[in-house]
Amino acid sequence: MDEEQMYSKEVGTAARASSIMSPDRPTSPVSVSSSDPDHPHHRDRGAPSTPHLPHHSSGAARVTTPTPLHPTDPNRSVATTHDPAFEVDFTEHDAANPRNWSRWYRGTILAVMSYGTTTSVMFSTSYTSAVPGLQTSFGISEDVAILGVTTYLLGLAIGALLLAPLSEMYGRRPVYMVANALFVVWVIPCAVADDMATILVSRFCAAFCASALISNAPGSLNDITEDHHRALAFSIWSIGPMNGPAIGPVVGGFVFQYLGWRWTNWVIVIAASVAWVGTSAVGETYAPAILRKRAARKRRET
Questions:
Q1: In a domain, 278, yes or no
Q2: TM segments (predicted)?
């Protein structure tokens, strides 16, 4: 009798517990009850698992509202938080757009870029005509004198890596103005040097600055030309830099023969000064830099 009473008492306790655990009152989503049929302990190992849809009480419900960062339109591929009313861009016939400038002005920019690049590369080879004069003046071997060509080419390579990205940060015109001015300044020590070390260091620094035109001039041409004229523009521009290394020894040879080796540098100072004036006279061609200035002006006005 005692065992039967204990058994009936346990059955009654289980019945009361089952009445409390009603399916209309789900357990807290934080804790998983073992009475859940989707619980791993109650899942049939042989049956395929079906996705369980969690149900929350009204107090824990979350409603997703469309925001600019979560577009609900399936046809939209980009989510943006910017109001188009605050975007700054060129209009169709905007006079500030470099590709809308007059042809003669864009042709002038093309000529200036080609001439400036020619001056930069011409200085690399005009130096070779002055090597005999350097040997006589400083009492050095030909191998040491030729090092001036090596340091110049090294400066061009390193400078292009650093000065090319600057034009995208600050615009092309500021880079041209500063770099070309420093190029002229660094050629002067080559003309007045009293030892070979001064020439080697000065030529490296001059080449570093001269690389601004070599690396950024193609970008300026791309800024001002349409797609169907770009090949022609690049062909005309390349006449200068492609022939500059050949023109350098010819010009340097005549100058060295009649004026001496120091004047091979003074000629470059004069030519590079003209290039600096030309690049400083033309306007900014990099569209993002122009639009940044326009946006800054609008912010000041508002």
A1: yes
A2: 104-124, 144-163, 175-194, 200-219, 231-260, 266-291
73 is a domain residue? no
Instruction: Decide if 81 is inside a domain.
Output: no
- Number of domains the chain contains: 1
Domain of residue 180 covers 98-301
Write the DSSP assignment of the chain as a string of letters. Answer: -HHHHHHHHHHHHHHHHHHHS-TTSPPPSSS--TT-TTSGGGS-SSSPP--------GGG------BTTB---TT--------GGG-----TT-TTSGGGS-HHHHHHHHHHHHHHHHHHHHHHHHGGGGHHHHHHHHT--HHHHHHHHHHHHHHHHHHHHHHHHHHHHH-HHHHHHHHHHHHHHHHHHHHH-SSHHHHHHHHHHHHHHHHHHHHHHHHHHHHH--HHHHHHHHHHHHHHHHHHHHHHHHHHHHHHHHH-TTHHHHHHHHHHHHHHHHHHHSPP--HHHHHHHHHHHHHHH-
Q: Domain for residue 12, yes or no?
A: no
pLDDT in tens, the chain (302 residues): 455 555 455 545 444 444 444 444 444 333 333 444 444 444 444 444 444 434 443 333 333 333 343 444 444 433 344 555 567 777 778 888 889 899 999 999 999 999 999 999 999 999 999 999 999 999 999 889 999 999 999 999 999 999 988 988 899 999 999 999 999 999 999 999 999 999 999 999 999 999 999 999 999 999 999 888 899 999 999 998 899 889 999 999 999 999 999 999 999 999 999 999 999 999 899 988 988 888 888 888 77
